[in-house]
Amino acid sequence: MSFPASHKTVYVLDHGPFFAESCEHPVEFDVVALSKTRSTGFIPLAPFCKSLWTCSIESVLEYCRVVFDIFPKGKLISVLASDTQARPLNTWNQEDQNISQLMVSLAGLPPLRGPKNNDASILNGLSSAVEVMTAGTDLQLQTQVALNEEEGGEKVLNRGHIICITSVKSESHGDMLIECVRDTIAQQNKLLLSGDNENLIPITNCQLTLINVLPTNKEGAVKDRPPTVLSSHLTAEIHSAKAGRHLANKLSQLVQKHYDLAITTVTGIPMKEEQNAMSSANYDVELLHLKEAHFDLRKLESVMTNQPEPEPSNTMVISTKGPVATVTKSPESNNILLKWCQPRSSSVELLHCGGAYRVSPVGVNSRHSVCLTNFLLNGRQVMLEQPRKVGSKVISHMLASHGGEIFLHCLATSRSSLEDPPSISEGCGGRVTDYRITDFGEFMRENRLAPCQPTPETEEEAPIERAKSQLERMTRLWPMVISNTIIFNMPSHLDPLPTLITKSVLTDDEVLECKKAVYHVVGMETRNEPLPVPTMGSRGKGPKREEQYRQMWSELETLVRAHSATSPAHEKVLQCILDCRKPPGDEAGKTSTKRAAERVTVKVEKSDPDAMETQPLWPENDRSGGPDIKTEMHKENIRGVLDQPPIKKQKMYIGDLIGKPKAGPQSLLSLWSGRINTIHSKRHSEFAGRSESSGKVAALYPNLMKEEKESTNGEVKKERTS
Questions:
Q1: Alpha helix positions (H), 363-412
Q2: What digits encode the pLDDT tens for the residues 22-45?
Q3: Which stretch of DSSP H or E encloses residue 520?
Q4: Beta-sheet pairing, 234-242 with 203-214
Q5: What is the pLDDT of residues 655-674, one digit of tens each?
Q6: Domain extent listing, the chain
Q7: CATH for the stretch 5-32+45-258
Q8: How many CB atoms lie within 10 A of CB 263?
Q9: Where is 257: in which H helix or E strand?
Q10: Percentage helix, strand, coil for the chain under 3-state DSSP, each rounded to 5
Q11: Which CATH architecture group holds 262-411?
């Protein structure tokens, strides 16, 4: 059982003498001194600077506040202060996971000053953080008990974050801190694997983040390091940040990264001015929440054109041009802008909601965030729309409170998931209506799964693997829309080739059937027959006949080529298609293909009426170009492979009827008669008397005797005639 790294986070705060120094960022204490109503001679109080320790704990508390607001359970944080020893401020218990507990514990830890605290070290806190990481949470321990009860139970995979806020003096100092954590993890895992402690779990993976904090008037000597895998159990990174708002921004980025959060900026919120209650102005409020709330918006593919350069903060904004709101995304962007819409008081009129996510204000103490929070907690709902300049507004989100907590609701912008699904014949959005519904139903019937007994050890492949393999073969080329295919719209001409080619093994007879289908298409092209090209949704007459056949051959070749590597038999079918396909723009190829298609078979009667012989129409010496279909037909014993083209009406000659050759072009009848005579002449040797080569014709029956039988005495009278 694997737990995410966000399940456990350990903060290690450097409580040494260095963090008792000033952050060098002045803060105005006397607010009255900034107002215009102060009296003459008023002496304002001098500004003051917070300590590095104060800046650190304020930033950490903001990190914890966001996590506790959005994740009431399941995301735990433990805080340690490190000086001369490690001081834990809370535990993994759910009762300690709140801001009040942490503030009470931190109140007893003022900044350390004086030489007696020079022995303070951050190493004490890092070593203790690893030990705290090995301690199992209630959820982990319950899961481990449940897994142990199962037969062959798994182990809980313990992952987590260690975030250390300290002062890194040099590159070698940073390496030393990382090495300390790595060695401590290795030692703890070794002890836990050798011993038996039910409440401790070995660390599977730890993500260490070192934050080098500096006063605002100093520059750091340590460069930032991206996350680097140092071992199978440790990944480390280093960041440098100046105290004050810079450190708070850095931790705000980390909380978004560690917990997969995003920011929604609600813009255009009307608020009354503090100084003049009669006037109002528009303000913006940033809200943190899970990134899943922006899922529908991030699916938009188009990007706004003429977008100005992004600000240094790397934000994401919604396009205000075009019919659909679009998202412009930068590498570190997690911010989406939504516009305040008129709030509604009646929940009956609200749109259907597809998801609700807890939110936490980025600036929880700002006047704008407080006003919006109080407005929502009073039972009001706020609709948020995508800012657009063209078209009607699109309300995509809603802010509302439930049980004292504020949620961001994702509203359905198109068809609600609660309504009946649209009929597939109507099309999705009215755009696509010619789905291959019947073919898809047949496809599902052919690929139905049925219960199967456990696979015996002698069987090479499991049934589920065979089913996956068959499904993969059958979907290598399977258009979903009728208008996107030609060959699947002409089953009467190509069957059974599309079905047979998806099989894993082809027999010789099946290869022959595939070739017959290819030859039939060649005959169709020779006769210039129209193809069943779908015209749904198209304008005009569509592509020309030659273009239709070019598309058909290309799609047929793509289908067969996708399966050609399955077996040598599949490769034979592909080679047949390549031989019969017209080379584009090649006149010689076109002529050869036409000749190949016209080599039809004729049936010649022998002395036995039941015996037939298949012979090509063209002479034996015609071998010009193209595939030798005569050889293929005799090799495979094909009868009637191609449909005979229609015979054109031609002028008949007397020579055609008597079988005599004539000068000039000959008709189809004369060619056929001459060919038949040639075939008969090869079957037996002609009589010498009938052969015209001898010069004269011999008389028939020279010695035939006429016999008569007398009725009286039965004698036979023989006469000889000459």
A1: 367-377
A2: 888 888 777 655 555 666 667 777
A3: helix 508-526
A4: parallel
A5: 444 444 445 567 888 888 88
A6: 5-32+45-258, 262-411, 463-535+543-601
A7: 3.40.50.410
A8: 21
A9: helix 245-259
A10: 35, 20, 45
A11: Beta Barrel (2.40)
